[in-house]
Amino acid sequence: MSHLVTTLSALETLYGEVGEASRVKETDRIVPVYRALIEASPFAVLATCGPEGLDCSPRGDEPGFVRVADDKTLLLPDRRGNNRIDSLRNIVRDPHVALLFLIPGVGETLRVNGRAQISTDPALLGSFSVDGKAPKTVLSIAVEEVFFQCSRALVRSDLWNPDKRVARQALPSAGQILAALSEGRTGGEAYDKALPERVKQTLH
């Protein structure tokens, strides 16, 4: 226990001063250089918090699926998923959210912190329709803090290196995971066999 860091002063002493570049990159709005990153991103991770704890949810679609409405507002459609609605449950009770945007092949990521509201405005939902299918809700996120993250994490992980891709069959499949956790009541080979077509038919 003597090696635990338990105070801010100890933590700040351990890590030292924040560099100038780390300070100037932070903004309170979507500036043009950050808008370019958001519009190029096909994937983001949405973090929320609520009475039961934290949630971190992957979100993805065509590049620019998170819409920049203005320099203080992002719009994120809630596409079809598993209906757990963990993120939405949290937002109803605590609007604080964080987004981490990734762009394939690019080392830098973009972080956005703000407060979200859940909208069912018909016109807004319709504007996000894909193949005639509108999302059930859209998150309207009031931007409070934006900054890019340097590439060190992605360089260390070698994330975008195609030679480092893991063969899917080397790990448990969705059906195998469900079968193991449900003691065979759900999942299994039939689940895995039907999954690709089910995903294709329920993307939006």
Question: What do you see in this structure?
Answer:
- The chain has 204 residues and is an alpha+beta fold.
- 31% of the residues lie in helices and 27% in strands.
- It is built from eight helices and seven strands; from the N terminus they run H-H-H-E-E-E-E-H-E-E-H-E-H-H-H.
- Helix 7 packs across helix 8.
- The longest helix is centred in the last third of the chain and has 14 residues.
Secondary structure layout plus pairing:
Layout: H1 8-15, H2 20-24, H3 32-40, E1 43-50, E2 53-60, E3 67-70, E4 73-77, H4 86-93, E5 96-102, E6 109-119, H5 122-127, E7 138-149, H6 152-157, H7 174-181, H8 188-201
Antiparallel strand pairs: 1-2, 1-5, 3-4, 4-7, 5-6, 6-7
Helix pairs in contact: 7-8
The count of domains is 2
How far apart lie the N and C ends? 49 Å
Reported for the largest beta sheet, the result is: 7 strands, antiparallel
- Write down the CATH topology of the largest domain: Pnp Oxidase, Chain A
pLDDT average, as an integer?
Answer: 96
* Order of helical and strand elements: HHHEEEEHEEHEHHH
Quickly give the CATH architecture of the largest domain: Roll
Beta-sheet strand percentage?
25-35%
| Extended strand count | 7
CATH superfamily of the largest domain: Electron Transport, Fmn-binding Protein, Chain A
What is the SS-derived class?
alpha+beta
Question: What integer value in Å does the Rg equal?
Answer: 20 Å
What's the CATH first level of the largest domain?
Mainly Beta
For the biggest β-sheet, the strand order reads 2-1-5-6-7-4-3
Number of alpha- plus pi-helical segments: 8
- Percentage of helical residues? 25-40%
Which segments are poorly predicted (pLDDT under 50) over 5 or more consecutive residues?
A: none
Shape: globular
